[in-house]
Amino acid sequence: MKQSITLGKVTKFMGLGFLSTLKDLFTGKLEKEDFINFLRKVVVPLASVLLFIGLWHMGSQSLYNIEAEFKIEKALNDQGPAAAEAMRECIASGDVSCKPNTLPSPAQVWDSYKSLLRDHNIISADKAAFIEKTAALNEKRIAEGKDAITYTGRPSFVDQIFRSLKTVFAGFLLALVIAVPLGIFIGLSPTLKSSFNWFIQIFKPVSPVVWYLLVFMIVKTLLIDSNEDSSFTISFISVGLCSMWATLVNTAMGVSSVDKDYINVAKVLKLGPFQKIFKVVLPSSLPLIFTGLKITLSVAWMVLIAIELLAQSPGLGLFVWEEFQNGANDSNAKIIVAMFVIGIIGFLLDRLMLTIQNWVSFDKTDAI
Amino acid sequence: MAYLELNNIYKTYGQDEHATEVLSNINLSIYEGEFVAIVGFTGSGKTTLVNLINGLLEPTSGEVLFKGEPVQGTSHERGVIFQNYSLLPWLTVGQNVFMAVKEAFPKKSKNELNAIVAEYVEMVSLTPAINKRPKELSGGMRQRVAVARALAMKPEMIIMDEPLGALDALTRGNLQDEILNIWGKEKRTALLITNDVDEGIYMADRIIPLRPGPNATLGPEFKIDIERPRDKTEMNDNANFKKTRNAIIEYLMDIGNERKLEASEEFILPDLSPKDFVNQFK
């Protein structure tokens, strides 16, 4: 009994309240009046997922037919009826050489997902074997003061996910370190506010692509001596600069709009400037700061894909771009897999931020 | 010499033609150990007056003297109990009081400070709730925290801005007794701002009505010659109480009527009468 309460609380805290309803269903604790609630929270979403997959399947099927018919028509017009018949048979047999390349069906995407996982297993095994093989040699090389030999094979899909996460967190930290203190200063001082206002208004709407180019110009020159690959540095700085605006604006607004009562308390108690900021101003603006950070993290994740693609920095963005350029028969399906992975990770990041927000903030706001 | 003195205070908000004069020609002297109540209608400028005394606002002209020195900014010597509690919602009861005590006695050790916090939280009988946040408390409990916070700083004068205005009658009565108790024990000077004449008579030595703003100014003072400790039930039969109460209420009513007369604009109602439906259906 006690455990179920804590589970319910934890899931609700993280904005995953539907999980506890699901659990109640399996433990048979669902009351009759909860039934409608259950329908709304579990059955309806599941039904909509199934509907979505069904529509997707039908859509991809009809796109497939359009392209198949076009191919046959083209063969008929260009090379005559015999070629058209051969093309029809070729398409029906599912041969790779003449298969229409269009929106993949859900089943194809699922297959690609499994093949990506298999691929990951193969690569990890290969990597492990490589490390084992070079362990003795590396020890010797390090003892001699040389660099160790590292695995330079192709990264797997799962590796790409982790690299993307690394980039997004580096960018997010950069945004946090710049935007929160700057936001506090801007919020506290009307002079700073008016001096930064034009800056914020002009740079806020700039597209990620342009940020990337700007950062590229600067970092390229700064790291001109270095032989190392600067793509990671460039992409995380661009991600940070792109996404920090929401936090900056929200922090400044939160700090400048602290309840007058609290400011009066600070004055009557004669709190020093530091005490006033840390004990009154910051706690009271935490909810707004976190709303800003939440937006920043989701924007960071969104622009990351585009920036990785441009910067040729390893990660999901590069994966998508390479698959698109690759044009293999399962490339489209792999791109859709990446799309879902990006979406799901974005959702999880959002929940992560919500959990932290609920944990640190006095104002327990409901999940949005 | 008066402990707190207000000389020819004027306070206006805004500038030039947009200026509204909220307070005009306020003169007030409060002596050490006295309990003075200022009674007025809502919107008559009571909060502005309080903020002038505690140093959150500066008068447009005139001077506020505290112990003979002009008031400049807030001071720990004048503790304030705000109308809307103004507790910091992210701190617990104990932390709210501790923050005030720490500022008031920066030299004391943490243990000494904690002892003071415990003492004052106990005084308002909130020890069981010391680790709760304001959100978990009732209105009366929150106001008691605010009382504890103001008193724990050991101010020489307590300024109360309608401290019990938002509470129900029962809680109000209890808190009035608690505040009087504490005031009696430590004999500090107290200024109470209220809109409740009975509360003023029950608690104060002197009552001064505030004529409503704009241009609010203080009316004639009424001395309350009822011996302490006062008993609410007995007081109702006390001839002195009745006389004072009637005098104050009459004075305030007169002001109210004056205000009504000032609003001399006439509204002409349209000449309408209901339609005669009955005849239509015949």
CA-to-CA gap between the ends of chain B?
85 Å
Structural class of chain A: mainly alpha
* Poorly predicted parts of chain B: none
Oligomer classification: heterodimer
Shape field of chain B: globular
Strand content of chain A: under 5%
User: How many strand elements of chain B?
Assistant: 11
> Helix and strand string of chain B, N-terminal first?
EEEHEEEHHHEHEHEEEHHH
Q: Give the fraction of residues assigned to helices of chain A.
A: over 70%
Mean pLDDT across the residues of chain A is 85
Low-pLDDT stretches of chain A: 364-368
Can you give a write-up of this model?
- The complex is a heterodimer of chains A (368) and B (282).
- With 368 residues, chain A is mainly α.
- Chain A is globular, with a radius of gyration of 27 Å.
- In chain A, helix 8 crosses helix 9.
- Chain A is 80% helix and 0% strand.
- Chain B has one domain: 3-Layer(aba) Sandwich (Rossmann fold).
- In chain B, 38% of the residues lie in helices and 21% in strands.
- Chain B has helices spanning 46-54, 93-104, 110-123, 139-152, 169-186, 197-203, 232-235, 239-262, 277-280; strands at residues 4-13, 20-30, 35-40, 61-66, 69-70, 78-81, 157-161, 189-194, 206-211, 217-218, 222-223.
- In chain B, the strands form 2 sheets. In chain B, strands 3, 6, 7, 8, 9, 10 and 11 form a 7-stranded mixed β-sheet that branches.
- The model of chain B has no long low-confidence stretch (mean pLDDT 84).
- Chain A binds chain B through residues 261-262, 264-265, 267-271, 275, 279-280, 283-284, 286, 362-363, and chain B through 54-56, 73-76, 79-80, 82, 84, 86, 88-90, 99-100, 103-104, 133, 135, 153.
Summarize it.
With 368 residues, chain A is mostly helical.
